[in-house]
# Entry
Amino acid sequence: MRCAGGNGRARWPIARNCWRAKTWPKCAACWPGCRPPAMTGCVSMAEVEVSCLIPSAGSGDRLGLGCKGFLELAGRPLLRWLADKGRRVADEVVVAVPADRLDEANALLPDCRVIVGGETRHDSVALLARAARGDWLLLQDAARPFSSIALCAAVLARARETGCAGAFVDPEVPVARLRDGKVAAVLLRHEAGVFQSPQAFSRETMRRLLAHAQERGYRPQSTLQLAIDAGIEVAAVAGEKHNIKLTTPIDWRVATLLEEYLT
# Structure
């Protein structure tokens, strides 16, 4: 058995409970923090086509309840809900968390690969993309646990056609572009879309986006902003009204009414 990490010394035995009965593709010698495969979701490197990436390394200051991924709805942490959805559309799930919660995340997500995230969301996305093994990257958001599996599949399907796709929701009303406290332009509702997750990228597209960001010292709020800034075509998929972003205490109160959309 040869470790896919590159040094040829496989430290862990065959993962007997692995859902695909394959060997754990990394070893502790070449993958820092690698764990034995006491997990149900490990796959060989050759079989990873789609990687689901979940950045959850932020402090959640605006919500005021700590790192959002570890908050519980319907009796389970948000990361667990998102990981379960990710397993249904991807071959692996890779999660970025704060360094001081790494052990907790490993215990919570034994079927995922967990890494330490960066200082910003963009930094975490870059780390996740480099850690992922898939040719296609489905980017989720710990602050949007209500996105459906159908939406994830639709975004991924469009990305396969174009290289880059994301979910956008109809604003339902006209949107104003503001400049210096004044209305500079108006976008009609059919001309505008509110960014949502998931987003999906080919590995090559993500590589180009990260290189573009590094060259410009640019750390966008949304990875799709990088694509637009770089002149890369982004396919738009109709989002979901219930797929809200958990940012403020009011959002959290609304979230308790949307628990049926967690599965």
